[in-house]
Amino acid sequence: MGDQTQSKIINDPVYGFITIPRNIIFGIIEHPYFQRLRRIKQLGLTHLVYPGALHTRFHHALGTIFLMKQAVDVLRSKGHEITPTEEKGVTLAILMHDIGHGPYSHTLEKCLIDDLSHENLSMLIMEKLNKAFDNDLELPIRIFKDEYKKHFLHQLVASQLDVDRLDYLKRDSFFTGVAEGVINAERIIKMLNIHDDRLVVDAKGIYSIEKFLVARRLMYWQVYYHKAVLSAEYMLTMILQRAKILASQGEKLFATPAFSLFLNNNIKFRDFQENPQILEIFAQLDDFDIFTSIKQWCSHRDKALSFLSKGLVNRQLFRVKIQNEPFNNEVVQNIKEGIQRYFNMKDDEVGHLIVEDTLRNDAYITERDNIKLLYKNGELLDVAKASDHLDIVGLSKPVTKYVLCYPKVLEDES
User: Fold this and answer.
1) Where in the chain is the domain with CATH 1.20.1250.30?
2) Which residue in 151, 163, 356, 412 has its CB near the most CB atoms, within 10 A?
């Protein structure tokens, strides 16, 4: 790709200038599979609550390679060997970690493909790109799958203190304007170290880690699990579920060609593995395919589909209630009966307009790949045990809440 010493400079609103070497890293960024991430919003429908949250998976991926460069430089400065080949490998692994995301990020995983995981799709896409780039992605793939001899490289890509989380917290906070999510990613990276082939944090960085964990918990409740954000995401899910049912009944629904394949067929993950053409079609699918179709469905004769579609397009969102205990069965049944009367629906159709769900907020999981502090005497201690901040102990305990989502029109009628 020309002179390998040259580099590409991109101006990022969060970090300033990001330097991208004109080698395979730039080649992957230029590839249509990666460019698709420009058309997938990082936070899905969160912009309906925080209007600035229009940043994309593309933004996020570039941010992670900026932070990865910093992390590699810090670890090298502390005497840990990371070869140029390994640096390129871990950079490519983090660059492509989200390349398998579908439209509106996680929503497609729930609706259009039964057993879809964006991690599995990322793996399929990486393997396909590996062939296109003369097997130069074998090391990034091994690092991504944690099959490389240096485990800490995988932890930089996927762990409870990876550069993925460091970027999305800082970036999501920046674009939403939610100050509670601000973290000092640069300070955290300066405190990274390696002990017995695992990523650790120098003990003096404990307060930055505490702030990181608290910020993560707050961002979940204030942004990712915000009531109106949940409402919009549930409505999108209900729209796609209703559309899938209508399509299975022979209804001809407007859809872009790429979207049509997944709307009109029961595609499973194994189909991707058996038919390479499906992956090619998936790689054409983005937010615009879904929303263009939903705009058309606003005038569909199916009352539920049109009601949901108009509500999402015009931001007439459903009511969302969140509480610490499961909802009373009688309350839920009354809402279902109200939906049935208002929309003149059959019993088995009522579920398309109501959602019962549980939310789980795991700011920090002590049982899995936990964050260890490294003291000068060589002692390692879990951050939750080392912290004198009571909140950290609480953050290590998962919080579960119960959600009920249904049309506000039922309240207007009562």
Assistant:
1) 227-271+285-359+403-413
2) 163
| pLDDT at 2 exceeding the cut of 50 | no
Instruction: Give Cα separations from 210 to 33, 266, 363, 396, 410 (angstroms).
Output: 37, 45, 11, 11, 44
- The highest-level CATH class for domain 7-225+367-397 is mainly alpha
Q: Nearest-5° angle of CA 224, CA 227, CA 231?
A: 95
Q: How far is residue 343's CA from residue 349's CA, in Å, rounded to a whole number? A: 10
**Nearest residue to 69 via CA among 25, 29, 130, 34:** 25
Please spell the DSSP secondary structure of 253-305, one letter per residue. Answer: ----HHHHHHHHS---HHHHHH-HHHHHHHTT--HHHHHHHHHHHTT-S-HHH
- Classified by CATH at the fold level, domain 227-271+285-359+403-413 comes out as Growth Hormone; Chain: A; (1.20.1250)
Residue-wise pLDDT for 60-80, tens only, equals: 999 999 999 999 999 999 999
H/E run at residue 401: strand 399-406
Pairwise CA distance, residues 135 & 132, whole Å: 7
CATH 1.10.3210.10 region(s) of the chain? 7-225+367-397
